[in-house]
Specification:
Layout lengths: L9 E5 L2 E3 H9 L3 E5 L2 E3 L2 E2 L1 H4 L11 E5 L2 E6 L3 E4 L2 E2 L3 E2 L10 E5 L3 E2 L4 E2 L3 E2 L4 E2 L3 E2 L4 E2 L3 E2 L4 E2 L2 E3 L4 E2 L3 E2 L4 E2 L2 E3 L4 E2 L3 E2 L4 E2 L2 E3 L17 E2 L8 H13 L3 H21 L8 H10 L4 H10 L6 H19 L6 E3 L10 H12 L7 E3 L4 H29 L3
Parallel strand pairs: 1-3, 2-4, 3-8, 4-9, 5-10, 7-11, 8-12, 9-13, 10-14, 11-15, 12-16, 13-17, 14-18, 15-19, 16-20, 17-21, 18-22, 19-23, 20-24, 21-25, 22-26, 23-27, 24-28, 27-29
Antiparallel strand pairs: 6-7, 30-31
Helix pairs in contact: 3-4, 7-8, 7-9
Length: about 400
């Protein structure tokens, strides 16, 4: 016997115990679902509608099949506010046949402040409207693998007591995770954040570091990734992974630089205001050159060594050219300095040793200026190198 509900367009319940079978029947019939402070009994598995083991009136349901892939479009609003799901919630393909079912939520789907006692599985789904999971508690594993969020994806203050899987997900518009907690870790491998991203206040209470290989940010040049790297940095420090924390710190500072450069609401400004803001950002040029490119915010000591070698060699080439003039206790007045002598003098000048056996001719201003520049550069770069090493090897 086919289960068919009455012709009401909205399935609405408050403060009741509701069977998952009644909810599935409402979804199959195309009715809106609005539940408030309800307890859902049984497994809410959308695959029950697609199989022949149970009979639902799904004649009006949009189902398309392309080979082994089944695509289902749910055009109705779905809202579970302050609800408790006693068993698994599944709007995805079964574990044994992953990537074979794709559910499209055409309108908003909201689970705000709900509790998932079992698994919460939405892998491969497409959310075209709002995906609201604010304040949710996921007591077991929650999977959003390869999910596409075309609208806003809201996971603010959510508690992931189990493992949170987001690998392969695409956040096209917004991805908000502020003040969320990942109890046993998360997976953000191959995730694409194309719009606004907010991980401010996100933390991990079990000292687990999320996996984030190949994560990408479409608005990286606007510093949208700064809060994500801050979360990774803090999680790595709590877990004692200080090298990984240093890499996350470098990414965070790079993102912070771009956020300062563009400022808030940059894309909404007129062309003239954008030009004015870029002109004001010239003040960040010293940070770009010295803080990021040269110093690497203390995480790239090799860059300091490379810059030092470049300066020493460049100055040595100048010293051994006809453009320079030297005198000293060795016999070279009126003669060109050899390249080896140039490297010797450049190294002693860079390291501020200054033996005094060779020195610039007092009458040759260019040589004296180059020597002064190299001495100041050497003192600065050696200090930066010491700071980099002490920062990298004294963590924890």
């Amino acid at each position: 016997m086919t289960l068919k509900l009455e012709t009401e367009t909205v399935f609405h319940k408050e403060n009741e115990r509701v069977s998952s079978k009644d909810i599935l029947a409402a979804l199959a019939y195309g009715r809106e679902v609005r539940l408030l402070r309800c307890t859902i009994e049984g497994e809410l598995d959308f695959n029950r509608i697609l199989t022949k083991d149970e009979y639902f009136d799904s004649r009006d349901l949009s189902v398309k099949r392309q080979g082994s892939l089944t695509m289902v479009t749910l055009p109705m609003l779905i809202a579970f506010n302050h609800c408790t799901f006693e068993d698994n919630v599944c709007f995805a393909a079964p574990w044994e046949s992953d990537h074979k079912v794709e559910i499209h939520f055409k309108r908003d789907i909201v689970f705000n402040s709900s509790v998932f006692c079992g698994q919460a599985r939405f892998g491969g789904s497409v959310f075209r409207g709002l995906a609201g999971f604010d304040g949710c508690v996921f007591k077991r594993i929650s999977t959003f693998r390869h999910v596409t969020f075309h609208g806003r994806a809201m996971f603010r203050t959510a508690m992931f007591d189990g493992y949170g899987l987001f690998n392969g997900a695409v956040f096209s518009k917004e991805g908000r995770f502020s003040n969320a907690c990942f109890g046993k870790g998360g997976n953000f491998t191959d995730v694409r954040f194309n719009g606004h991203t907010d991980f401010s206040g996100v933390y991990s209470k079990s000292k687990s570091v999320p996996v984030y290989e190949s994560v990408r940010f479409g608005r990286r040049r606007f510093g949208e990734d700064v809060t994500f790297w801050r979360f990774i940095k803090q999680s790595s420090q709590d877990a004692g992974l200080y090298r990984q924390a240093g890499e996350a710190f470098y990414s965070e500072m790079c993102a912070h630089f771009w956020r300062q450069f563009h400022g808030p609401n940059y894309t909404e400004l007129s062309r003239f205001k954008k030009f004015v803001r870029v002109c004001k950002a010239v003040r960040l040029l010293p940070e770009l050159i010295f803080g990021r490119m040269l110093f690497g915010y203390g995480e790239r000591p090799v860059r300091v060594l490379v810059a030092s070698v470049i300066i020493i060699v460049a100055c040595a080439l100048f010293y051994s050219s006809p453009l320079a003039d030297f005198t000293g206790r060795v016999k070279m007045v009126g003669d060109e300095m050899s390249l080896l002598d140039g490297l010797y003098f450049s190294t002693t000048t860079f390291t501020t040793l200054g033996f005094g056996d060779i020195f610039p001719d007092p009458q040759h201003l260019v040589t004296r200026l180059v020597t002064m520049f190299e001495a100041v550069s050497g003192a600065s770069l050696m200090a930066l190198f010491v700071v980099c090493l002490s920062k990298r090897f004294s963590r924890g």
